[in-house]
Amino acid sequence: MSCHPYAVIAAQRLLPVLRSAGADEAVRQTAALLAAGCRAVELTTSTPGWAAAVTSTARLTDARRHPALVGVGTVTTAEQARTALDAGAGFLISPHPAPEVRAVAARRGAVFIEGGFSPGEIASAVRAGGAAKVFPAHVGGPGFIRSLKAVLPEGLIIPTGGIRPDEVPQWLAAGAAAVGIGSGLPGDPAELAAVFAALAGPCCGRGDCTDREPRP
Questions:
Q1: I need a labelling partner for 152 at 20 to 30 A (CA). Which of 61, 72, 129, 140 fits?
Q2: Known catalytic residue at 133
């Protein structure tokens, strides 16, 4: 039995968000991330040929031979949701409330991380699916996440938008389960691997997601 996507994402703590020039580039970028110790990657519908990229990358494995967890972000319509799931997406993410996507995910038994910005939108997403993407996160800052967690302690909160890789620890300290990063990750393979190694945390306790010991 594989780990739930939420467990994988929370263990990884940094979720790369790829907005690539095309499907081939998305596949190359995903393969490089997986080789660097990443397992969960978010492709986006803004990438031309994104569905083909999902099909190709969903077959890959990470550096520990675990199956890649490839999600699709910027999903805002029922058609996109169905296409993503048919292509092999392991989870769906929207940038804002998306009732159509929520309905498709419910029918298909799929994991959907719904986006929002206001406390009401975020609370609704958490109630529906247990998690929420906060976008654009940089507007509220880490303090906003801290306030949200005070009233949504069990919610998996994933801030995304305008966050640099070196700022991730601040957001995690504020209560984020993971942080979406769309740019700024190092291109050097060793440096990229160091980023993921420094952030990786415990997962399900079975060794499926990470071999690192839980942090104190």
A1: 72
A2: yes
Instruction: Name every residue whose Cβ is closer than 8 Å to that of residue 125 and which is 6 or more positions away in sequence.
Output: 97, 113, 114, 115, 116, 131, 132, 133
CB 113 within 8 A of CB 133: yes
Q: Please, which residues have CB within 8 angstroms of residue 116's CB and are 6 or more apart in sequence? A: 96, 97, 122, 124, 125, 132, 133, 134, 135
Look at residue 15 in the predicted model and tell me its pLDDT. 98
If you ran DSSP here, which 8-state letter would residue 15 be given?
E
Q: Which residue in the list 79, 133, 149, 191 is annotated as catalytic? A: 133
Q: Is pLDDT above 60 for 161? A: yes
Distance CA 42, CA 54 (A): 9
pLDDT band at 203 (very low <50, low <70, confident <90, very high): low
Sheet holding 131-134, edge to edge: 156-159, 131-134, 112-116, 91-93, 69-73, 40-44, 14-18, 179-181
| Mean pLDDT, residues 11-22 | 97
Q: Active site includes 149?
A: no
Residue tagged active-site, from 42, 79, 167, 191: 42
Over 60: is that where the pLDDT of 204 sits? no
Rounded distance between C-alpha atoms, residue 179 and residue 143, angstroms: 14
Residue 184 Rama label (left phi>0; alpha psi -120 to 50; beta): left
